[in-house]
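Sequence, please.
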């Protein structure tokens, strides 16, 4: 199987997946908007793409590895929670590694790792639970 086949086999191409991905990305961006506002006010918002991009990239990579957008997550709530938490953990790890390079502003910070893990999961996991429980997708 080639790389494209490997990726497409882990993604259920459906409106459900599109809705889930849009919700995930919106919540990840919300996390960074709130962070930018908290740390620098409205004046910090132009830095949003630089702050969020490493974590969005990390989310794309880890969500494909973990299988967050595959059809099986819809079969069991436990699976949806575990996959979402795993993908976010991977996204934070990748995002922190990228922030620690000279190419992006910021640096790796254990405090930010903890905050991003907790707040990101507090946003993403309930969203996925709601999507599962209430058939939002």
């Amino acid at each position: 199987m080639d790389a494209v086949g490997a990726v497409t086999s882990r993604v259920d191409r459906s409106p459900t997946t599109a809705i889930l991905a849009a919700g995930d990305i919106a919540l990840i961006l919300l996390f960074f908007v709130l962070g930018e506002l908290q740390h620098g006010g409205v004046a910090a918002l132009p830095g949003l793409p630089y702050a969020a991009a490493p974590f969005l990239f990390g989310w794309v990579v880890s969500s494909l590895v973990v299988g967050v957008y595959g059809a099986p997550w819809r079969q069991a709530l436990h699976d949806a929670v575990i996959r979402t938490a795993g993908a976010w953990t991977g996204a934070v790890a990748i995002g922190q590694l990228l922030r620690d390079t000279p190419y992006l502003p910021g640096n790796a910070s254990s405090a930010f790792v903890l905050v991003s893990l907790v707040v990101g999961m507090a946003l993403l996991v309930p969203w996925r639970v709601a999507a599962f429980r209430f058939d939002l997708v």
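Residues 3-133 form one domain.
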